[in-house]
């Protein structure tokens, strides 16, 4: 039953996501694909995955213990905080802290989590900002 609930919630979120994607305002300088395509593809994949859970649920799903559920909840809170703090702190700082926390909770030692967080943040910044020339959120230091 829990898989069907999960599938139903996922399908509802996919429908809302697709609806929100259709109301994106397109710029006059938009390319042939447009800004709606990627969100609509994500919504379709999510809807198909959710329908699978509705049609073929696991007969005996095993749920994690309460402690593991709490960790998942805090990881979701970190991602929400990341989205809220991204415009304030900028891409490099916000991504560093989010990656540090998430890798630490996945079992990486604290010092290694700092290295992974910084490396992930700088690596993504180099690829997207410097190589591809895409716009990323600038923080208080201008990067």
Secondary structure blueprint with pairings:
Layout: H1 2-22, H2 37-55, H3 66-89, H4 91-105, H5 110-131
Helix pairs in contact: 1-2, 3-4, 4-5
What does this structure look like?
The mean pLDDT is 90. The protein has five helices and no strands. Helix 4 runs antiparallel to helix 5. Helices cover 71% and strands 0% of the residues. The N and C termini lie far apart (47 Å). It is mostly helical and 143 residues long.
What is the gist of this entry?
By secondary structure, the chain is mainly alpha-helical. The chain has five helices and no strands.
Distance separating the two termini: 47 Å
Mean pLDDT across every amino acid position: 90
Task: Tell me the fraction of residues in β-strands, as a range.
Answer: under 5%
Rounded radius of gyration (Å): 19 Å
Q: How many E-type strands?
A: 0
- Low-pLDDT parts are none
Q: Count helical runs.
A: 5
Structural class: mainly alpha
Largest sheet: none
Percent range of helical residues: over 70%
User: Can you write the helix and strand succession as a string?
Assistant: HHHHH
Specify the overall morphology. flat
